[in-house]
TrEMBL record:
Alphabetized UniProt keyword annotations: ANK repeat, Exocytosis, Membrane, Neurotoxin, Presynaptic neurotoxin, Repeat, Target cell membrane, Target membrane, Toxin, Ubl conjugation pathway
Gene Ontology biological process terms in this record: developmental process involved in reproduction; exocytosis; proteasome-mediated ubiquitin-dependent protein catabolic process
Organism lineage string: Eukaryota, Metazoa, Ecdysozoa, Arthropoda, Chelicerata
Keyword Membrane assigned: yes
Localization, UniProt: Target cell membrane
ANK repeat spans: 98-130, 131-163, 164-196, 197-229
Name of the molecule in the record: Protein fem-1 homolog B
InterPro entries assigned to the protein according to its UniProt record, in alphabetical order: Ankyrin_rpt (IPR002110), Ankyrin_rpt-contain_sf (IPR036770)
Transmembrane in keyword set: no
Amino acid sequence: QTATMTSAWKEALRSRIYCAARDGLALTLYALLNNAPKADFPEYLNALVSDREQRCSPLLIAARNGHIKVVRMLLNLAEAPVQLEQEGTVQFDGYVIEGATPLWCAAGAGYLDIVQLLVLRGADVNHPTRTLSTPLRAACFDGRLDIVRFLVEHGADVHLSNKYNNTCLMIAAYKGHLDVVRFLVDCGADPNVQAHCGATALQFAAEHGHLGIVRELLAADARVLANGIGMTPLLAAAERTRADVVRFLVEQPWCGRQDKVDALELLGASYANDKDHYSLERAYHFLELAMIERSREPPLPKKPGPALAAYDSRVECTSLQDLRAIRDDAHALHMESLVIRERILGPHNPELPHPVVYRGAVFADSASFDRCLLLWLHALRLRAAARLPLRKDLLRFAQLFGQMLHVGVEVPPAAMAQTLSACLRELEAGPQEDQDANLLTCLYLLVELGRLPPAEDGHDLMRLVYRLVRLNRVTRDGSTLLHLCVSADTPVDDYHTKNVCRFPCASTARLLLRCGADPNAVDGRRNTPLHVIVAYMRPVSDFLTLHAIIVALLEAGAHPDATNGRGETAAQASPTGVAELVLRTQMGISLRCLAARAVACYGLPFRSGEIPQSLVPFVEMHGGRGRPQPRPGAL
């Protein structure tokens, strides 16, 4: 008991010392340390303390928060030298940084006085984080030239890159810090290093519209290189509607006529469908400039691609006269621009789908659902071709279908089938971290599918549902689609989807069961869907749903005497008498189930050949998982 009290007292003191350092309470910290045994100083001062998403030592958190007095006090403690290279976990601008040192924190937060103090005490100026970010990179991110200069003067290596091969020069160019870029170039930073994605500092500067930095880098002999998806700095600037950068780059001697035309066309096309920089006036202006350039001798004839239904079967203008004919036709300019973007960027470019989705959203807002569906289904194919995650796209379709059903517009079965097919592919091969969200979206789609009238191609849709069920994907807590469907705790997206999706949902549960969902599947707590539905806390006001789901599960073969991880049957787990009563009136117990419960109840051995191996899972389902179960009584 004394040892426990001592441990608790030490833990409390460690926490108070950390909080004093975190909050800059130098006098409080001095008093706490003055009354603590000197032998315990290393434990108090160098231990990492968890603080929400951060995990820091007192020195680390004091440096992070800019408390120079606390930092100086900790560094001056002769009794227990603090660890200058202690690594911890801190938060910066919403990002969690692992492996950060006090110097990295001070540099990233912009505290020059603490940076100077730590470096002069011997801190390693090149000590990286887990992602290989150095203190110099942290200072470059915020554009602190004073800190950058000091670190370089004291040995910081301007050539070190992070795990993505992203250099200090790149981050300074990306953030638009011209003075830092100029200093790094003067210190010998190489402007032609390429990150793993193929981008250079020039590319980052161009696509973010930092014209001054673009000029500086070109003056430093930066080469014009394409990144991994074929985007040059010129095309990147045009795609992001950076008109000043485009105007400057197309006048450079290395820019050929075709490159100039492509850039002007892409710039104009991007203005026509950019959510943040939308301008039809600018769109037409740059498209006209491009067409004029095409018309000069020798002419550069355009080679239009095939007409796509998604773009209203639009065929590109090939002459100045054609273009001027649609000057005042907003829809034609929108579609013309989408066609141009796809021709120049190519169908596999990950930047291509965003404006397509935006234009579709505009149609949806004006209730032009058929036009929206054509564009969004095309964007879905483009994102799949570019191997991009589809989580947001799939949810967007569930929201759109919810909106259509809510206002009485029929959802085309073909559109539902294409969306379910994409959902199936994403569950098969998509990112694991998106699986829970994709399962929920899939469930929303199934609920919406149940609201559709019978269709000629209904068998195709049922085959898709069957394949989804057979895939048997589960959430992190082990819930199947059927578990989610019968749970009142299943979240529903707030945007349109909530108008048609509510859980538990009896019709969707019946659909899943008809397509082969296992009524006896267990989640991470070994709850079957029957255990989940009996926990429904609206058994009176929504009795029909409760009754329908229980009946459907039992008719599909659910075992009412299967036990969960707490050894409870569904009836025993029910918090209300209503669900228990429904169970008792509906269920029939087989002799085989009674025998399995008896084996579990009395803890009889059954895994060593006493029964056929095929029956072992059956007995385990009824409670035989290693310990005797309570007597079932009347179940």
